[in-house]
Structure formats: structure tokens, C-alpha cells
Amino acid sequence: MHYIPRKIEQNINVALKRNKSVLLLGARQTGKTTLLNQIPTDLYISLALPTVRQRFEKDLALLLGEIEALHTKKAKIPLIVIDEVQKIPEIMDLAQDLIDRKKAQFILTGSSARKLKQPGKINLLPGRVVALKLTPLTISELPKDKKNLEELLLYGTLPEIITQSKSQDKETDLISYISTYLEEEVRAEALVRNVGSFSRFLELAASESGNIINFRKLSQEIGVAHTTIAAYYQILEDCLIAERIEPLRHTKTRRRLTALPKYLFFDLGVRRLSANEGTKLPAKYIGSIFEQFVGLELINSINLAAERYKIYFWRDVNGSSEVDWILDKQGEYIPIETKLTSNPTIKDAKHLQTFLAEYENTDKAYIICTVPRKIKLHEGIYALPWQEMGELIF
Fold first, then answer.
1. Other residues' Cβ atoms within 10 Å of the Cβ of residue 79
2. Strands across the sheet with 375-378, in order?
3. Rounded to a whole number, what is the distance in angstroms from the first to the last CA of the chain?
């Protein structure tokens, strides 16, 4: 597969130069292994290989011995890559010991945070490790000939899918992803007892991606407790399949804002196949899919930013006023609406105007759409091409 340069490579190199180790999390097929092949290392261990994993599961001292032997041979501290570290979470404790004794520097990767978060079992190496996240490709990472919006909405932006030239090959690979990872590994990772209910949940969660989620309502549709629905969504978060987006709750008016979250599937191609949708973008839902595309781009770009920005949505309890996305730049709010149109007007900015009037710490608002270049629609309100929304963050 042709390597597509990733912006997070710079973040990794900066951390390594500061003598920090790196914990790189990312869903399957986001390109972690391919990325690491670009970085010179002294030892590469993939726990995805059963023989390798079984060897160290039996005796973790073997790994300790290999790394200490490397340290003896090297004039500098060796750089060790351990891929899929969640397969043997106890390696985190071993890594802490070696880091503290200055015997090794690590890049640890994982496609699930679930086992790494279990209390009392795993040390997440606070202060010793820089935690980074590898997402599907951002717009700025896409090759110039891969920026067809319809294709991106249909097939998503996983590197392996983007590099395929034929639509049928993209579809085949996405089907394989669903069957080999979502349906098997996520269930195994979660130790789900009721496989049938989890499969129904997965399809419904994909269909509801981008919508406000009411656990009790979903529990009635699937026939399980609302606490089970909450646990299932936590599984998707831990396995890096879904992003939880909180509503903006801050207001100085008497407006009652929703307290319910949204969830976004991490990739639109994976979402579509999980929801059992075909290869035609339905006119009824295409606006929602574009909204999710913009939300994911903002989230993925925030992951690359040096500043700690956040993303929210804004909606009152009866839905009379809502804004698709709110970018929180350390207290400065930027409201963002999405419209799949090349001819936006100030009428499309009604909710943006409401938001600007109610929040003092914001003076600009944007409609992300398909205009060829940036347009000023009104004082402080702009239409912005979807290809250029990275300028809101970087």
C-alpha cells in the first residue's frame, strides 16, 4: 500500500526528542503499523502475531531480557515499538520500570483502550508517556486526487480504503473490516454475553450516528436495559469506534439546553456498512452524513493541534434553536453550521445569529458548505468551503 504521510508523525518525533515515550491509540486500519515503519527503531514487537503474543504471555521476563540486552549493546537508550499493547496490558508496568531506569524509550500502540483503563490492573504511565491518537485521514492529509466529496461520504477516509482506486474494492475491504473487526473483535474485547442484542445495537448505533442519543429509547427498541445500552456505547468508545460529543451546557439566558450526548462513528464508510446501507447516498439523510463528515474532520484536526480545543453541539430541549458544532478554542466559541449547498444565504445562518446574540465570547460563525471559496454572508458570518475548514483550528 502506498504510504500517505501523516501529520501526527511530527507530534511523535517531537515527543521522542523530548525523551518521552509515546502511547499511540487508534482504531484498526487507521495506519498505525504503516506509520511506525517510517520511524527508525531498535526493536519492533507485534503482539497481533499469536506466536509472539503467546511467547510473552508465558514469560514476560523474556521481553525484559531482550530489551536490557539491547540497552547493553547500544550507546544510546534503545527505542522499542510494541504494537497492540492491549493484548498484554501488563507490559505497561514493565515499560514504566524500564523508562524509570532509563533502559528504554517506547512507542506503544493499541487499537483499544478498554483493557488499558481497567482500574487496579494497569498503569497508564502518567508523566512518562505522551498519549496521541491516530484517526482516519484528515482533509489536509488526503492526496489531491482523493478529494471527491461523494466518495468520502460513502467510503470514509481510512488509509487502506482511500488508496483503493475501484469502488468495488473499497466496498469489499469495508465489508471485511465489519466482519473481522467490528463483529468479532469488538464482541470478544467486550465479552458481550448477548451477541444478538449487541449486533442489533451495532446496526442501530450506526444508523443513529450523529443524532442525540436517548439510552432509554434505544433500550426499548432493542429489548435490553438502558444501562446495557450505556455499557455498549462505552465499548464503542473504548474500542475507538465511536466519539461521544457532549452538548454545550453553558448559557447566561433562561434557555433550557439539552443534556443528552451525540455519538459519531469514527469513519463514514464503517458507519454505512455497519448500518447495512447501500452505495447510494439517500437524499433524505445526505445532509446528516455531511454534518457528521464535518464533525469528524473537526475532531480529527483537534487531535493534531498543539492547543487543547474541544468540540460540542448546541441545542435547546425542544429543538427550536440548534447549531451543528461548537468549536471551543479555550473559551472562545466558534459556532458552525453545515449545509450541503454551493449557494448559502443568510437565511441558512438563522441559528448562528441566535448563538452570536446569546454568547459574548464569540464574534465569528461559519457555514461549512460546497462554495468554491470563502464568502462573507453577514457581519461575522462566513460561508467556508469544506476543503478549508482546517483553517478554523490551525
1. 20
2. 310-315, 322-329, 332-338, 365-369, 381-385, 375-378
3. 29
Q: What are phi and psi of 148, to 5 degrees?
A: -85, 115
Q: List per-residue pLDDT tens for the chain, 394 residues long.
A: 578 999 999 999 999 999 999 999 999 999 999 999 999 999 999 999 999 999 999 999 999 999 999 977 777 899 999 999 999 999 998 999 999 999 999 999 998 887 776 654 445 566 789 999 999 999 999 999 999 999 999 999 999 999 999 999 999 999 999 988 877 767 666 566 677 788 899 999 999 999 999 999 999 999 999 999 999 999 899 889 999 999 999 888 889 999 999 999 999 999 999 999 999 988 889 999 999 999 999 999 999 988 889 999 999 999 999 999 999 999 999 999 999 999 999 999 999 999 999 998 899 999 999 999 999 999 999 999 999 999 999 8
Of the candidates 270, 211, 196, the one whose C-alpha atom is nearest the C-alpha of residue 239 is: 270
**240's grid cell:** 475507538
Burial (CB count within 10 angstroms: exposed 0-12, middle 13-18, buried 19+), residue 130: middle
* Calpha distance 252→86 (Å, rounded): 44
Tally Cβ neighbours within 10 Å of residue 251. Answer: 13
Contacts of 363 (CB under 8 A, 6+ apart): 356, 380
**Pick among 2.120.10.10, 3.40.50.20, 3.40.50.300, 3.40.50.1220: CATH of 8-134:** 3.40.50.300
Max CA separation in the chain (angstroms): 69
Helix (H, G, I), strand (E, B) or coil at 383: strand
DSSP 389: G
Residue 391, all three cell numbers: 483553517
Using alpha carbons, select from 59, 64, 132 the residue that is nearest to residue 101.
64
Q: Where are the chain's structural domains?
A: 8-134, 140-392
Contact 292, 300 (CB under 8 A): no
- Give the Cα separation of 219 and 8 in Å (integer): 38
Distances (CA, A) of 58 to 43, 52, 348: 20, 10, 62
